[in-house]
Amino acid sequence: MTAATPPQALDGIRICDFTGQLAGAGATKWLSAFGAEIIRIEDPVRQGRWDILRGMEPFKEGQSGLECGGGFNNHNTDKYGITLNLRTDKGKEILTRIIEKSDAVTENFAVGVLERWGFGYPQLKAIKADIVYVSNCGFGHEGPYSQYKTWGPIVQAVSGLTFSSTLPGQPPAGWGYSYMDHTGGYYMAMAIMLALLHRQNTGEGQWVDLACTEAALTLNGPALLDWSVNGNAMRQPVQTSSNRSQYAPMAPHGIYPCSGEDNWVAISCRHQDDWQKLAGVINQDWTTTFDDEATRLADQDLLDTHMAAWTASFDKFDLQTKLRALPIPVAAVQKPQERIEQDPTTENFGLWPTVEHSAMGEVRVDGIPVHLSKTDWHMSRGAPCLGEHNEHVLTSLLGMSHDEVADLREQGVL
Amino acid sequence: MSALNGIRVIEIGHERISFAGKLMGDMGADVILLEPPQGEASRDYPPFLDGEPGANRSMYFWHYNTSKRSVIVDLETAAGQNAFRALIATADVLLESEPIQRLSELGLDYADLIRIKPDLIHAAMTPYGRNEPASDLPATDLTIMAAGGPPWSCGYDDHSLPPVRGWGNQGYHTGCHFTYLAVLTALLHRDKTGEGQFIDVSMTAALNVTTEAASYSWLIREATLQRQTGRHASVRPSGETQMPCADGRYVNTGVPPRFPHEFSRLLAWLREIDLVSKLPEAVFLEMGANWEGPFDLSQIGKDDTITAIFGAGREALKLIAMSLTAQEFFIGCQNAGLAVGIIYSPEEAFEDEHFKARGFQVEVTHDDFGRSFRYPGAPYKLPNSPWSISARAPHLGEHTEEVLGTLV
């Protein structure tokens, strides 16, 4: 099949990809950006609706429907999309031939879905002995909760991440997005590449069982040790603000109001030196009460009240400039528009590439936040429309004729 | 044999990058942590063993530095620079989060190092990338998160309360996740072609593309999401998904029931725990259970019956939550096929029977204290190339002789 121009790091790697939503599709998005050939397989009978993002908002102005979901496009750039009806023998046969030519099979279904179609790990291995199979599911394929269902917010809830995002006297704030769908996707991409490296070293494939909840649990490590070693629980009668420093002692350390509507600034004083610089700029009597670190840490509620009263009259970006000049750690809480359109560092990094989608036209998407000096990432195509690459994949990869493909379409296999 | 056996990683100690080294070390890489004579700063971060500060008692340092060896190398001295060069000659990967000019000023940047090790993979993770002077401004996880986007989307319906940054160094973690992904990608390329390369990672860019719809709603239609209590930020306010149970602990109710089998199981469960009589809307659950054809969620608010059935599902969940503990609610809903979650604290999650049964807790021996402790385990299970903690976090310079001794 056609490779992207300049050579890429993952050229020659082919993934037979059943992933969807963000937790799965995010993983193979990374691989496609670095040149792997991702063949995304969807169910023609349900028109690919298993991936709810396919037809979900946001839409470009005047667009809607299954080909135009904004999130779907964002997470599936440069992948090939084919439809296969796995209820039919012919569909199963075609899938078998694709697996024979693939390095990995990836999915994030509930437990048992692939087995029910007759493509569990033993069958995959029989088709291709060194196949890498990576399954990503909320609770994993083993254990008492393996049949339980999750979405990103459920993973965050069960793993402790929702709980550890909060203000005192309030219910958990949690995460206003699926942090663990993104991050589960990152762990899935790591697992795929680790298994490919292992195969490169030994010639051996394997089945990687990734449980998103477990990946999430590893992200509160020191708190877990404080529990398992010292018996200190994070659950307290009143929770501490998670805007404060959890580990290194720092105060003030918070998010404070600024002028205008819903504008905020984050400020951290790491040590006495940062505080003295800040106190010099504040230049108000109350700061003298907080001249020693122990007092600042002990009386953070009062300190935060003073801080909020002081920051409230500033424009957040003016205050950022003022405190960067000291310098102490400071950052405006950026709104999407500010990060994307006004903060030059994201544009300078090339973080928002434009891709061409067959139905949506030109769309800007999330790029990749790294650059590799010799084999950098590349994005040009939007997500595939339903079955967009049926013809291309079946003729070029499997050597079928155009007539054969047309017959398959007529028989309801595609 | 683990996937990264035989790969040597040199990590210049910095609290921002330490998680990337751990991720590689726990997959079998030989990670050599370079520390200045006074040690990496996070050696002094709480929490401490038995709550007492002191040498090798920081559990923060323990967690982020498993499966590593510590070598004292003072990059400010000629001897230290020579040792660094000698180490690089044996290395596959360099991980660092130094000020953007520091290594070039020392003559130790990528351009210098490839003369010693032509196929080196050098990953530099900085707040804004290697080309932005802003990367050298002081920053913490909090300020990096604020700049990168997550807090804007997190917090409460009441916008007089500040946006919330989730705990646990998640800004550092996100940068390290991408650093690790990039290094694995570069290793696959090197093994195929013999070519190494330089990797520039921006931590704020990493967060910018880890905000789900906040970024792409703006990119696609210039829409701005607003934060809401315990659920996704949204352009228009959406229904609550978080509620307290009878024991005061919270649950996340996820997507309310919307399929006939879900309504029917919910109804059966209500009967089982004898709550049907307390739910005036039970009749609509019955209708939902017997619904034929597609239950079109887009008709909520337009079609009276669909609205009533969907609302009855929510009401039923509320009623059950008020009557049961969070644990009972979680297990009961999941057994009824509903994707809900209990909002565990981290330690409650750690002790849950599911994760225990999967072997998530692992014992790590601390010979120095004559004790062993339970650590969080594998983020993924690769049976043929397993994750493992090969050693407790090293003492400062514990392996200086062992490592440098083999070089000359």
Structure description:
The complex is a heterodimer of chains A (414) and B (408). Chain A is an alpha/beta fold and 414 residues long. Chain A folds into two domains: 14-217 and 347-410, Rossmann fold, CATH 3.40.50.10540; 264-332, no CATH class. Helices cover 37% and strands 13% of the residues of chain A. In chain A, helix 1 links the parallel strand 1 (14-17) and strand 2. The mean pLDDT of chain A is 97. By secondary structure, chain B is α/β, with parallel strands linked by helices. Chain B folds into two domains: 8-210 and 357-404, 3-Layer(aba) Sandwich (Rossmann fold); 250-342, no CATH class. In chain B, the strands form four sheets. Chain B has a six-stranded parallel beta sheet, sandwiched between helices. A three-stranded antiparallel beta sheet of chain B has the order 9-10-11, with helices on one face. Chains A and B meet through helix 2, helix 6, helix 7, strand 6 and helix 8 of A and helix 2, helix 6, helix 7, helix 8 and strand 6 of B. Strand 12 (370-372) of chain A pairs antiparallel with strand 6 (197-202) of chain B.
List strands and helices in order, with pairings:
The complex is a heterodimer of chains A (414) and B (408).
Chain A: E1 14-17, H1 25-33, E2 37-42, H2 70-75, E3 80-83, H3 89-100, E4 104-107, H4 113-116, H5 121-127, E5 132-137, H6 152-159, H7 179-202, E6 206-211, H8 212-217, H9 221-230, E7 253-257, E8 264-268, H10 272-282, H11 293-298, H12 300-311, H13 316-324, E9 330-332, H14 336-342, H15 344-348, E10 354-357, E11 361-364, E12 370-372, H16 390-396, H17 402-410
Chain B: E1 8-12, H1 18-25, E2 30-35, H2 59-64, E3 68-72, H3 78-88, E4 93-96, H4 102-105, H5 110-113, E5 121-126, H6 141-148, H7 150-153, H8 170-193, E6 197-202, H9 203-208, H10 213-221, E7 226-228, E8 231-234, E9 242-244, E10 250-252, H11 260-272, H12 282-289, H13 304-323, H14 326-335, E11 341-342, H15 346-351, H16 353-357, E12 361-366, E13 371-376, H17 400-404
Parallel strand pairs in B: 1-2, 1-4, 2-3, 4-5, 5-6
Antiparallel strand pairs in B: 7-8, 9-10, 10-11, 12-13
Helix pairs in contact in B: 1-8, 11-12, 11-13, 12-13
